[in-house]
Amino acid sequence: MSETLLALVPTYGFWLLAVCTFCSCLALPIPASIMMMAAGGFAAAGDLSLSASGLAALGGAVAGDQVGYLAGRKGGAGLTARLGSRAAPLAKATELLSRRGGIAVFLSRWLVSALGPYVNLAAGAAGQPWAKFTFWGVAGEAVWVGLYLGVGYSFAGNLQAASDMALDLLGFLAAGAVAIGLAVWLVAVVRAERGKG
User: Fold this and answer.
1) pLDDT tier, 86 (very low <50, low <70, confident <90, very high otherwise)
2) Which domain holds residue 101?
3) How far apart are CA 182 and CA 186, in angstroms?
4) Residues 6 or more apart from 9 whose CB is under 8 A from it?
């Protein structure tokens, strides 16, 4: 499927990018990141406009996020009630999003993008304010689109090298985020222990 979609990028470029990023934000198995890298490569070759590719990919991603958010807003509470005790992880994510959701939405757009569609649903179910969700979602999607189009543009003609470099970069960023999260947790634990003693 990836090869078929990649072959269509020069012909249906902007529309295809918008549809692919829209579908990927709804948890459909579409290789949107690879499509954006390919579009970046085609832009470097002069076959596509880099700015139009970016706007199309961003528009599709933001639209997909909004559909997921609205689905969570309309049906999230009912789904949680039907799942009962099995919904504990969703309930926990929903509660976390209601308290500190902006940064979770932002990071789930690009750093841990596989979680993005589920964060959309949880944000809607948690009743996270639409404007806050949209602001952080657009900011995160802009990073995602810019990163992958930029990598594709930089490595024009070598999609495998672009993909490897993007995975390495995201792995490094994810490891850094985990390290920072653990450091913050450790500081909180130490402070709590000092407060008890």
Assistant:
1) low
2) 2-196
3) 6
4) 16, 17, 35, 38, 39, 42, 48
